[in-house]
């Protein structure tokens, strides 16, 4: 076996290892909220993510792969010795994989995009110098890391605020859900279909124009709308009579006040304790009275039905995030692999390197394997440790993240899926108030984000010099 053939096999193995780590760490972004809200069991989440992640990688993964392959470090800088560039890319993959595996072990959702970009820039700076780095491209990519959580957070915040106003705090929550849920089903399927078919089926020699893609996506969304409409039409609504001046937030706020006052009573002494006890008695009486007059028990069961409906909508948005993640983050594994394989086969840089279908398949399989084996670790952090999630909250978080991720994928920008989802979960949490967030967990996550880039850069340099000893 020649050195080139051995290096190709070694590169493919490292690429698979990198994709495995992406699945173990980043796929939690797609399924963590669904598992956290109990919309999906862990087993079903793995199966669903496997299908959608692979589909995203296979159908829409090539655009971002080309950016990671040659849009961060200028290959021409290494024209005199292409093997140096190839070894540097292999070292970057290995360094990123090791860092992601460490983060996954501790359940930290770090950004694989940060990791691979930091690793590629690390060896590029040391080996090729400052001029070897595509600083303008890097600036665009870096700005997307800031914009993606902000945009997804704003979308999730706005959507959840809308749901609170129009559904959760509505006079008839279940009736309001029956009216609006079909529209959510339409827009979710519309975006998923549009992302799939517009410039996404080139590998199958199917090239649809944007106008044709819009028509097909609209038709698919309409089918989803009608299915949701007729299914929800069969959901019965329990009638009740009450004052239309009533607002559900009154009971929620009153119960929060009672809890805060109970804490005051426990810590107070003498006269303050007696006054707190007296006020607590009055508030409890008022709370019971309002619940009785407004049939709050029926309303509570109505909220339960609303959450059950949003379980299905959240599954749709989970599919959307999984597809978007597969499309965007498979590039982190196969972009460098494509560059290395091309160099090893031709011993030169290609102006345009086609991403082979089999390489997209390899990346997709690696992601799925990583999710199935180690994905549960980070899923717990995303789904349970940032803020308490319900299907309505999870739906809003996933929709905000998915819309941001898919837009970036089509633009060929390798954004951080982790940042997008965490930003969206934060947006939902902020819509409920800052106290709804677990600031301790957020601190750990942000710290891991900050460390990722320099850590992978240094690891990449170390791996490069170790590999040079053997090749």
What report would you give on this structure?
- The protein is built from 18 helices and no strands.
- Helices cover 79% and strands 0% of the residues.
- It has 2 domains: 3-237 and 299-470, no CATH class; 248-294.
- It has 471 residues and is mainly alpha-helical.
- The chain has helices at 3-25, 28-36, 42-60, 62-70, 82-105, 112-128, 135-168, 173-197, 210-233, 248-267, 270-293, 296-329, 331-346, 357-374, 376-384, 391-411, 417-431, 439-470.
- The protein is globular.
Gyration radius from CA atoms, angstroms:
25 Å
> What is the count of distinct domains?
2
SS field, number of helical segments: 18
**What is the terminal separation in angstroms?**
14 Å
Short description:
The protein is mainly α and 471 residues long. It contains 18 helices and no strands. It has helices spanning 3-25, 28-36, 42-60, 62-70, 82-105, 112-128, 135-168, 173-197, 210-233, 248-267, 270-293, 296-329, 331-346, 357-374, 376-384, 391-411, 417-431, 439-470.
Question: What's the SSE blueprint?
Answer:
Blueprint: H1 3-25, H2 28-36, H3 42-60, H4 62-70, H5 82-105, H6 112-128, H7 135-168, H8 173-197, H9 210-233, H10 248-267, H11 270-293, H12 296-329, H13 331-346, H14 357-374, H15 376-384, H16 391-411, H17 417-431, H18 439-470
Keywords:
single chain, 471 residues, mainly alpha, 2 domains, 18 helices, 0% strand, globular
């Amino acid at each position: 076996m020649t050195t080139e053939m051995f290096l190709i096999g070694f590169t493919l193995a490292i690429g698979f290892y990198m994709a495995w780590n992406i699945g173990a760490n980043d796929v939690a972004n797609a399924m963590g909220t669904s598992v956290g809200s109990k919309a999906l069991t862990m087993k079903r989440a793995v199966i669903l993510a496997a299908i959608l992640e692979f589909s995203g990688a296979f159908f829409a993964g090539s655009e971002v792969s080309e950016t990671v392959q040659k849009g961060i470090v200028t290959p021409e800088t290494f024209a005199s010795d292409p093997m140096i560039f190839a070894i540097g890319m292999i070292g970057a993959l290995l360094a990123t994989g090791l860092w992601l595996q460490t983060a996954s072990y501790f359940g930290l959702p770090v950004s694989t995009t940060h990791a691979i970009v930091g690793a590629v820039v690390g060896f590029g700076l040391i080996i090729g110098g400052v001029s070897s780095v595509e600083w303008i491209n890097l600036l665009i990519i870096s700005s997307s890391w800031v914009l993606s959580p902000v945009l997804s957070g704003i979308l999730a915040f706005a959507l959840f605020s809308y749901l609170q106003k129009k559904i959760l705090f509505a006079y008839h929550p279940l009736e309001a859900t029956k009216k609006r849920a079909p529209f959510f089903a339409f827009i979710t399927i519309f975006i998923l279909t549009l992302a799939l078919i517009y410039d996404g089926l080139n590998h199958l020699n199917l090239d649809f124009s944007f106008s044709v893609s819009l028509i097909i996506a609209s038709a698919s969304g309409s089918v989803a709308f009608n299915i949701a409409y007729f299914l929800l039409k069969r959901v019965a609504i329990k009638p009740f009579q009450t004052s239309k001046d009533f607002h559900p937030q009154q009971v929620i706020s009153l119960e929060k006040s009672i809890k805060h006052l109970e804490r005051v009573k426990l810590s107070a002494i003498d006269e303050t304790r007696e006054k707190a006890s007296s006020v607590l008695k009055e508030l409890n009486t008022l709370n019971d009275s309002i619940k009785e007059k407004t049939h709050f028990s029926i309303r509570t069961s109505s909220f339960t039905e609303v959450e059950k409906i949003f379980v299905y909508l959240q599954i749709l948005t989970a599919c959307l995030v999984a597809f978007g993640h597969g499309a965007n983050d498979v590039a982190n594994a196969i972009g460098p692999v494509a560059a290395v394989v091309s160099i090893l086969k031709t011993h030169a840089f290609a102006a345009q390197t086609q991403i082979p279908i089999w390489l997209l398949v390899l990346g997709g399989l690696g992601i799925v394997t990583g999710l199935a084996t180690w994905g549960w670790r980070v899923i717990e952090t995303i789904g349970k440790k940032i803020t308490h999630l319900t299907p309505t909250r999870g739906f809003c978080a996933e929709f905000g993240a998915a819309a941001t991720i898919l837009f970036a994928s089509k633009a060929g920008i390798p954004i951080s899926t982790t940042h997008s989802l965490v930003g969206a979960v934060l947006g939902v949490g902020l819509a409920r108030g800052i106290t709804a967030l677990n600031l301790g967990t957020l601190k750990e996550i942000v710290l891991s984000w900050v460390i990722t880039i320099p850590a992978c850069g240094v690891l990449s340099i170390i791996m490069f010099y170790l590999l040079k000893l053997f090749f």
